[in-house]
UniProtKB/TrEMBL annotation:
ATP binds at residues 15-22. This is UPF0042 nucleotide-binding protein yvcJ. Keywords: ATP-binding, GTP-binding, Nucleotide-binding. Pfam families: PapZ_C (PF22740), RapZ-like_N (PF03668). It comes from Lacticaseibacillus sharpeae JCM 1186 = DSM 20505. GTP binds at residues 65-68.
Length: 297
């Protein structure tokens, strides 16, 4: 492990009100950062001391905005102190936008600018620009969000800060039984009840799709093989589009009647097909539920 690997990554997210700090914080949460909103700059050194003592958190993102304006004169001094600390790699991200775009966003949300509670919106924007000038000059990354959608801002942050050794996007493949209800967190649902049912094979009835005999029975059917090839290709083809749209995870649910045999075997194979491309978890929601009825699975 290198010296850089031992450092705690600190990202300070700041910038103009309405420029996208909330979207940025959500992006860093998806990137695995421990995020705190509206951290007073004077508390950062004490907070950092607690982190160093714990040794458990290595990536932190702090949002510092005009809600902390009483402390803004301290932020640059605090960051200089942090940068001189060997255990910290600190960077400021400053989000900006044109006056026209900021006015438009405030008009759309009908919110008041924090520095224009009793005055014109432009007065608040101008005052904020002046107050934030030292922080903007100190920023390592300045992003103009005037022409960026929230998704595009997320993509830019992902491209700059994601850890290539740990991809952001991951896939959850889940088997389930329709008789127990649809999984409410599924993004894609597939029904494999058209496949021959191992429930009617006496020696397979009490097993499930995790057993080799059941898996071989289900996947050994030519219809299952043909369907797998087509369905797998479709899933692989559409994954890049989900990633492009800003998805950080996708749940693929595969169901049969009781979630014991066919769906379990099929989920296993679909999950295995993705393991060389994305982090994948395969779970079986109903595979081990006690059979309370004689309904076929």
């Amino acid at each position: 492990m290198t010296e850089a690997d031992n450092k705690i990554e600190l990202v300070i997210i700041s910038g103009m009100s309405g420029a996208g700090k909330t979207v940025a914080m959500q992006a860093f949460e998806d990137l695995g950062y421990f995020c705190i909103d509206n951290m007073p700059p004077a508390l950062i050194p004490k907070f950092w001391e607690l982190l160093e003592n714990s040794g458990k958190i290595k990536k932190v993102a702090l949002v510092v905005d005009m809600r902390s304006r009483a402390f803004y004169d301290q932020i640059v001094d605090v960051l200089h102190e942090m940068e001189n600390t060997e255990s910290v790699h600190a960077r400021i991200i400053f989000l900006d936008a044109t006056d026209t775009e900021l006015v438009s966003r405030y008009k759309e949300t009908r919110r008041s600018h924090p520095l224009a509670m009793e005055g014109r919106l432009m007065d608040g924007i101008n005052k904020e620009r002046e107050l934030l000038k030292p922080l903007r000059n100190h920023a390592a990354v300045i992003i103009d969000t005037s022409n960026l959608s929230p998704r595009e801002l997320r993509e830019e942050l992902f491209a700059s800060f994601k850890n290539e050794k740990k991809p952001v996007f991951h896939i959850e493949v889940m088997s389930f039984g329709f008789k127990y209800g649809l999984p409410i967190d599924a993004d894609i649902v597939m029904d494999v009840r058209f496949l021959p049912n191992p429930y009617y094979i006496p020696e397979l009835k009490e097993k499930n799709g995790e057993d080799k005999a059941v898996y071989d029975y289900v996947m050994g059917n030519p219809m299952a093989e043909n369907f797998y090839q087509q369905y797998s290709k479709m899933l692989h083809d559409i994954m890049p589009a989900y990633i492009k749209e800003g998805k950080t995870s996708l749940t693929i649910a595969i169901g049969c009647t009781g979630g014991q045999h066919r769906s379990v075997a099929f989920a296993r194979r679909i999950g295995n097909s993705f393991k060389n491309e994305y982090p994948v978890d395969v779970t079986h929601r109903d595979a081990h539920k006690r059979k309370e009825t004689v309904n076929r699975s």
